[in-house]
TrEMBL record:
Superkingdom assignment: Bacteria
Protein name per Swiss-Prot or TrEMBL: Phosphoribosylpyrophosphate synthetase
Annotated source species: Fibrella forsythiae
Amino acid sequence: MTHFTTLTEAMQDLQSRGYTEEFAPEKDYLKVTSQDDVKCKSDEFKVDEFHRFEGTSDPGDEMTLYAISCTNGMKGLFVAAQGTYSNEVSAELMAKFNVSDRAEVNTEGSVQPLTTEESQA
């Protein structure tokens, strides 16, 4: 999988692969930002892959981009700033984005922990 340098580059690649909708979390569901009446509860979508980006000088610049597929056939993107939605949505919905223990999610775009050798360099 390609590792992207910028959020924009990753979004453009995913959009070219059919992830054309934009999602935003609200309470216990994701809503499609262009269609207020379209909502996906946590059991109606899955995270296909994600890419994490860290700011070079400001930890507040950390972003995670999620590629999402819904059971209704919609595919789209959800961009989450570090901790932004933690108090606004249900724990069940946010748990859906904890992908570290799910083998089916493509995590190659994630930031990998430093190895012992790298941390001593």
